[in-house]
Amino acid sequence: MKKITDLQGTFKLSNNVAMPYLGLGTYQADNDQEVIDAVRNALNAGYRHIDTASAYKNEEGVGKGIVESNVAREEVFLVSKLWNADQGYESTLKAFEETLGRLGVDYLDLYLIHWPVAGKYKDTWRAMEKLYQDKKIKAIGVSNFLQHHLEDLLETSEIVPMVNQMEFHPFLVQQTLIDFCNVKGIQYESWSPFMQGEVFDSKSEEFKQLTEKYQKSTAQLILRYNLQKGIVAIPKSVHENRIKSNADIFDFELSEADVAYLDGLDKGERSGPDPDNFDF
Q: Is residue 268, in this structure, part of any structural domain at all?
């Protein structure tokens, strides 16, 4: 197990860039005071990793939140994602510059292809490689790429993606994909670690015994589980108390048996789209 120390702890990417293993997700956070406050509050609480995307329509607010915080830009690991309609070589280069403009920054720490759009992601990746080689991005990666997408991309790529951001929670573990990424030196990252709230509602009974054992919330258990599996987590919240609570996971450790129990909940259940069947 990789050592999990504190909120500003990191996992090393294949190019030795340090990626904070806990970050703030901003999906569905409105591009107004809501996302500005969430980003500012997270950074001032000790977070150093902020995740957004062109598709979230809140990059301007994320940028303002960074400016309004007490944290310098160079201390923030800032991530955005290229939307499907912008895929292709030239359009990727253009979309990247537009993302920088909306965020009000001159580089990204990580840029991801949001979804594996058939017939386009290889040209898109060539553009990502150019942006990386031009030192406009510290690391490049993908999101929602299954093993066959990765294998196809690796046939022609010069650079192996440094990150793969996937839906991940105890009900969708995809251990074979995690193992494949580990072998290839691709850092696994989870989106929707709480299964879009289902772990608190319809599936909460599955965690009751562990929450009592560790005296931690379901959210804290699941985030600790992510990190102990070597997976970067970016829980989304716009509430300051939850943002702080999500980071209160460094004073306990799940036993190997309890990690195995959570792995055993895997039923291949998705709360989001299937990367093999999406139409957007």
A: no
